[in-house]
């Protein structure tokens, strides 16, 4: 059993070179949609898309009274207990033991439940295709399974993206925060969010200013399913018992009524 | 109801009861399975073993050797990158870090801008052509098509030894005359020479140096040359405490721009607002320099808003593209001469294009400015400052002053070595020449990509052409330039006059707040 892998993104080390974005496109054979050198950001489309599984978003944020730029690499978080996989009745999205949450288009029926389930709003649907797929980062599963970095992490020139065992990665994040407490804010995003994710972030500005969702519950989303579903057997059996009882009661009443009619004394009049 | 009419109590299996029974038992099994958590939880994935699509098990188009790349901001005025061509080979990183010592020499996190000195050396090293100059040719075509505009162009010393390479001529082919002919064919109203202001730069910068040495200007020694905008931005980023050492002279391009819309406009009687000032440079950083907010001294001079000293900067590659677009047979063009008033050149101006050239030109004229005599032959062949050695030193005796000690460096990593010595207070020199690009302007970031990555062989051929032209010129000293003398007589009066200070000199601004510098490479 392979142990689950994780990736740490150190936002303070990102210089916005977008090597990761290009590596993702090359490795996964995605169509490029930037023509003539225009970056997606210039055309106002720096968003995740079916053919852009990762993007680097430019944020202008206030820090110590000054405007600074911070760049956030965005892709699937690969939750430890993914809501998308639990919502998928076709099992087209599954959590692999190595960590990646992987989508298989051959099993997908296109219902888009996963998109509603995802607490981070990561999945993208091919609205313009006759047989659309739901696409997202696959965390380079075949590389990760061989204990290689995902393509994006392998090209990061500043080592802002660090790959390893998830447990080690959480430790590394805490170590970095402890080493420079004046720099980082004391939070590892993804350590607890949605029950923990395989991609973790540390930053020197609060995450909500960088467009991160900070209202994500710390409990794994699939657990909410059981809060409701655990009542199913009780309701099923109880409702059945109730209806059966009513059936027998009605049947008995009809029998008694019929018998009373059959054997009632003849009217003496 | 009692089934007594048939005369038997035994229940008969009808089709209806059978179906009801089968459905009921199926439901029970399913329910039991679901409740006990057995069904659907088997070891196998849905879709069976190997359920992963093939797509996720191959490496796609990612090359085996990848190293990432440098950041290039979307609004970088000098260089752009086509993401579709990038193969993440890391050549740009290599150049930026090891040759120019920019990437890796500032601490992270970044503050609010992408650190770039605009030298364009990354574009020279990019094997897939993903990084290139920002294309401004359309602006020039538009200006040329506008009959109400007077479009004048200046050409840098180094483009005339490299432009031919874009048209199949060997490196170092001297194409000065053909370049002028091509520009006239493209429709420029006046084709003038940056060499004119290179000579002017020597007069101003040489005078400034002498005043520093004599103590007439209260500024520290050694004096740094200020012709290379990549170098200037580098100094503003990484060594702001040494900015007082920087000569206050503008680069020849900006001197030319300021004079084009003042002196030239006055003498020719042209409305400065109708002038479009174009320059052809071997350099991508010149595009940035022309956009510096303070480079609008012609607007100050005329008290008119909106005038820029230089409107459009083209690199050598862009000029070649324009010539090709207009289907001009460049190699077969006749030789033509520059227009007058700001078109005369001396040998001293030509060698500005090579590393050590500014220093040699300055030495020739400094000798004259100090002693009033023409310099001895040594100054016309100052070999210690020539060639491709990273850091070069020379000393020359000048009567009345003593020994003038100079240093020359090219490539910003070499510049860093010299700057560290100056910062430590151990510099024995009076004057230091810095050029951002290895080899000087002849191998600038806007030159033809004749060899990728750039090689010393090509650099040497271009440098040889430059010195050959210098040696063949009747006038080889900046102070002999008759048009420069006329400019001083008719307009500026004398070097470092009040008007000179206004039009030809500038100030530098520390960019220390844009980065946290590191003096050694971070791993």
Automatic annotation (TrEMBL), chain A:
<dbReference type="Pfam" id="PF13247">
    <property type="entry name" value="Fer4_11"/>
</dbReference>
<keyword id="KW-0411">Iron-sulfur</keyword>
<keyword id="KW-0408">Iron</keyword>
<protein>
    <submittedName>
        <fullName>Formate dehydrogenase-O iron-sulfur subunit</fullName>
    </submittedName>
</protein>
<dbReference type="GO" id="GO:0030313">
    <property type="term" value="C:cell envelope"/>
</dbReference>
<dbReference type="InterPro" id="IPR017900">
    <property type="entry name" value="4Fe4S_Fe_S_CS"/>
</dbReference>
<keyword id="KW-0677">Repeat</keyword>
<feature type="domain" description="4Fe-4S ferredoxin-type">
    <location>
        <begin position="99"/>
        <end position="128"/>
    </location>
</feature>
<dbReference type="InterPro" id="IPR017896">
    <property type="entry name" value="4Fe4S_Fe-S-bd"/>
</dbReference>
<dbReference type="InterPro" id="IPR051555">
    <property type="entry name" value="FDH_Electron_Transfer_Unit"/>
</dbReference>
<dbReference type="GO" id="GO:0046872">
    <property type="term" value="F:metal ion binding"/>
</dbReference>
<dbReference type="GO" id="GO:0051539">
    <property type="term" value="F:4 iron, 4 sulfur cluster binding"/>
</dbReference>
<keyword id="KW-0004">4Fe-4S</keyword>
<keyword id="KW-0479">Metal-binding</keyword>
<feature type="domain" description="4Fe-4S ferredoxin-type">
    <location>
        <begin position="5"/>
        <end position="35"/>
    </location>
</feature>
UniProtKB/TrEMBL annotation, chain B:
<dbReference type="InterPro" id="IPR036991">
    <property type="entry name" value="Fe_hydrogenase_ssu_sf"/>
</dbReference>
<dbReference type="InterPro" id="IPR013352">
    <property type="entry name" value="Fe_hydrogenase_subset"/>
</dbReference>
<dbReference type="InterPro" id="IPR006311">
    <property type="entry name" value="TAT_signal"/>
</dbReference>
<dbReference type="GO" id="GO:0008901">
    <property type="term" value="F:ferredoxin hydrogenase activity"/>
</dbReference>
<dbReference type="InterPro" id="IPR017900">
    <property type="entry name" value="4Fe4S_Fe_S_CS"/>
</dbReference>
<dbReference type="Pfam" id="PF02906">
    <property type="entry name" value="Fe_hyd_lg_C"/>
</dbReference>
<keyword id="KW-0411">Iron-sulfur</keyword>
<feature type="domain" description="4Fe-4S ferredoxin-type">
    <location>
        <begin position="107"/>
        <end position="136"/>
    </location>
</feature>
<dbReference type="InterPro" id="IPR004108">
    <property type="entry name" value="Fe_hydrogenase_lsu_C"/>
</dbReference>
<keyword id="KW-0479">Metal-binding</keyword>
<dbReference type="Pfam" id="PF02256">
    <property type="entry name" value="Fe_hyd_SSU"/>
</dbReference>
<dbReference type="InterPro" id="IPR009016">
    <property type="entry name" value="Fe_hydrogenase"/>
</dbReference>
<keyword id="KW-0560">Oxidoreductase</keyword>
<dbReference type="GO" id="GO:0051536">
    <property type="term" value="F:iron-sulfur cluster binding"/>
</dbReference>
<protein>
    <submittedName>
        <fullName>Iron hydrogenase 1</fullName>
        <ecNumber>1.12.7.2</ecNumber>
    </submittedName>
</protein>
<feature type="domain" description="4Fe-4S ferredoxin-type">
    <location>
        <begin position="77"/>
        <end position="105"/>
    </location>
</feature>
<dbReference type="Pfam" id="PF00037">
    <property type="entry name" value="Fer4"/>
</dbReference>
<dbReference type="InterPro" id="IPR003149">
    <property type="entry name" value="Fe_hydrogenase_ssu"/>
</dbReference>
<dbReference type="InterPro" id="IPR017896">
    <property type="entry name" value="4Fe4S_Fe-S-bd"/>
</dbReference>
<keyword id="KW-0408">Iron</keyword>
<dbReference type="GO" id="GO:0005506">
    <property type="term" value="F:iron ion binding"/>
</dbReference>
<dbReference type="InterPro" id="IPR050340">
    <property type="entry name" value="Cytosolic_Fe-S_CAF"/>
</dbReference>
């Amino acid at each position: 059993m392979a142990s689950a892998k994780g990736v740490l993104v150190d936002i303070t080390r990102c210089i916005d070179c977008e090597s990761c974005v290009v590596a993702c496109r090359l490795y996964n054979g995605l169509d490029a949609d930037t023509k003539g050198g225009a970056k997606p950001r210039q055309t106002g489309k720096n968003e995740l898309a079916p053919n852009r599984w990762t993007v680097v978003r430019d944020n202008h944020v206030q820090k110590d009274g000054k405007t600074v730029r911070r760049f956030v690499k965005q892709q699937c978080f690969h939750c430890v207990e993914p809501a998308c996989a639990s919502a998928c009745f076709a099992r087209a999205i599954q959590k692999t033991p190595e960590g990646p949450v992987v989508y298989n288009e051959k099993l997908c029926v296109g219902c888009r439940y996963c998109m509603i389930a995802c607490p981070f709003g990561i999945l993208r649907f091919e609205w313009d295709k006759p047989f659309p797929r739901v696409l997202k980062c696959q965390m380079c599963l075949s590389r990760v399974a061989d204990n290689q970095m995902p393509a994006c992490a392998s090209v990061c020139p500043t080592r802002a993206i660090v790959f390893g065992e998830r447990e080690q990665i959480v430790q590394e994040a805490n170590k970095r925060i402890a080493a420079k407490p004046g720099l980082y804010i004391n939070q590892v995003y993804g350590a607890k969010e949605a029950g923990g994710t395989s991609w973790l972030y540390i930053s020197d500005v609060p995450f909500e200013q960088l467009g991160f969702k900070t209202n994500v519950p710390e409990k794994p989303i699939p657990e909410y399913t059981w809060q409701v579903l655990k009542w199913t057997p009780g309701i099923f059996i109880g409702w059945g018992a109730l209806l059966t009882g009513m059936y027998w009661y009605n049947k008995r009443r009809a029998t008694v009524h019929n018998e009373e009619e059959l054997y009632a004394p003849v009217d003496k009049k | 109801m009692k089934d007594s009419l048939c005369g038997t109590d035994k229940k008969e299996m009808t089709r209806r009861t059978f179906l009801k029974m089968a459905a009921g038992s199926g439901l029970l099994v399913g329910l039991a399975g679901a409740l006990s958590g057995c069904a659907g939880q088997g070891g196998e994935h849905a879709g069976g073993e190997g359920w992963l699509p093939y797509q996720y098990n191959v490496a796609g188009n990612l090359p085996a050797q990848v190293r990432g790349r440098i950041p290039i901001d979307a609004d970088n005025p000098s260089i752009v990158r086509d993401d579709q061509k990038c193969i993440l080979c890391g050549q740009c990183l290599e150049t930026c870090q090891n040759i120019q010592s920019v990437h890796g020499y500032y601490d992270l996190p970044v503050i609010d801008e992408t650190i770039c000195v605009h030298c364009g050396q990354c574009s020279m090293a990019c094997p897939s052509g993903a990084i290139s100059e920002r294309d401004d040719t359309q602006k020039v075509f538009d200006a040329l098509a506008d009959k109400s505009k007077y479009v004048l162009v200046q050409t840098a010393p180094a483009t005339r030894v490299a432009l031919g390479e874009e048209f199949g001529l060997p490196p170092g082919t001297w194409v000065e005359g053909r370049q002028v002919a091509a520009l006239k064919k493209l429709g420029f109203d006046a084709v003038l020479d940056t060499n004119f202001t290179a000579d002017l730069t020597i007069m101003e910068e040489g005078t400034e140096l002498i005043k520093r040495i004599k103590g007439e200007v209260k500024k520290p020694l050694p004096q740094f040359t200020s012709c290379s905008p990549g170098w200037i931005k580098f100094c503003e980023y990484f060594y702001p405490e040494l900015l007082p050492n920087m000569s206050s002279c503008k680069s020849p391009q900006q001197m030319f721009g300021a004079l084009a819309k003042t002196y030239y406009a006055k003498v020719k009687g042209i409305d400065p607002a109708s002038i479009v000032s174009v320059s052809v440079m071997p350099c991508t950083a010149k595009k940035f320099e022309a956009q510096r907010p303070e480079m609008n001294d012609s607007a100050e001079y005329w008290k008119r808003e909106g005038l820029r000293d230089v409107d459009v900067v083209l690199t050598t590659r862009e000029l070649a593209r324009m010539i090709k677009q207009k289907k001009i047979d460049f190699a077969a063009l006749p030789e033509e001469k520059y227009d007058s008033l700001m078109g005369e050149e001396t040998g001293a101006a030509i060698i500005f294009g090579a590393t050590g050239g500014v220093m040699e030109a300055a030495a020739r004229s400094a000798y004259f400015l100090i002693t009033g005599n023409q310099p001895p032959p040594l100054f016309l062949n100052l070999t210690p400052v020539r060639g491709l050695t990273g850091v070069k030193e020379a000393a020359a005796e000048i009567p009345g002053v003593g020994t003038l000690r100079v240093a020359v460096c090219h490539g910003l990593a070499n510049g860093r070595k010299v700057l560290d010595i100056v910062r430590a207070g151990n510099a024995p020199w009076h004057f230091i020449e810095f050029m951002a690009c290895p080899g000087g302007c002849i191998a600038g970031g806007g030159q033809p990509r004749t060899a990728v990555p750039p090689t010393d062989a090509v650099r040497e051929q271009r440098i040889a052409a430059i010195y050959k032209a210098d040696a063949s010129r009747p006038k080889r000293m900046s102070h002999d330039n008759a048009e420069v003398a006329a400019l001083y007589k008719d307009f500026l009066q004398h070097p470092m006059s009040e008007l000179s200070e206004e039009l030809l000199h500038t100030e530098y601004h520390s960019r220390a707040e844009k980065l946290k510098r590191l003096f050694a490479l971070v791993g």
